[in-house]
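Cross-posted from the bioinformatics board.
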Amino acid sequence: MTLHTHPTPAGACRALIADILCLADSLPKAEPVNIALSGGSTPALLFRLWADEFSAATPWTRIRLFWVDERCVPPTHAESNYGMTERELLSRVPIPAANVLRIHGEAEPAAEALRYSRQALDLLPQAGGFPVFHLVLLGVGDDGHTSSIFPGQEALLTAAEPYAVARHPQSGQRRIALTGQPIVRSPRVAFLVTGSSKAAVIEALQASADSGPAAYLAHAAQGEVDIYGDEAALG
Ligand code: 6PG
């Protein structure tokens, strides 16, 4: 587990984007770069800076975007992870539409989890029956959740399906979530965490695998785990 601590959230985002571009550069040019994106509020800055400052340096025809998780709402809804990414990044860069593989938050959740699982398995290399992304980008909630795997929903960490239906413990909102095993098998997992509200959960995550789903996955991951963040979050 490697910590990448930067003075500001923007610094952490720029470092992560630069590393994504290095990853793309290191892969055969005929291959897509398969990235699973998280939502929530933290990556909005990452997406904005990517469009503003790194678009010209990005090989968009090779970047293929999947989602880690989606709220079960239409793409136009304020809580849609795809909607946020579309506003901040996708509408502002020349990525081919065919390279954007969103989760249909407006569809019936169980059927959509199955459809998206099959699509990921069809398009990606596999390990142990799970799809393998080049990079899985994760956030961490103050309660220690990641993807939409919340404390109390640990069965999703070892689920047999790549994507499953999850439920936000407070609001009851349904989500489609990447389960634990594709994250464990990813060659690279990057967490992006900013702000002082994340300091305690990141300290606990570093100290023990038992402090929540994000901590479990950060310790169980078989590939490289990088945590990008600002000083407020990472100390
Ligand atoms: C989501 C996410 C989720 C997120 C964390 C952190 O749909 O909410 O993908 O896993 O990464 O909740 O969220 P913030 O960035 O808003 O703190």
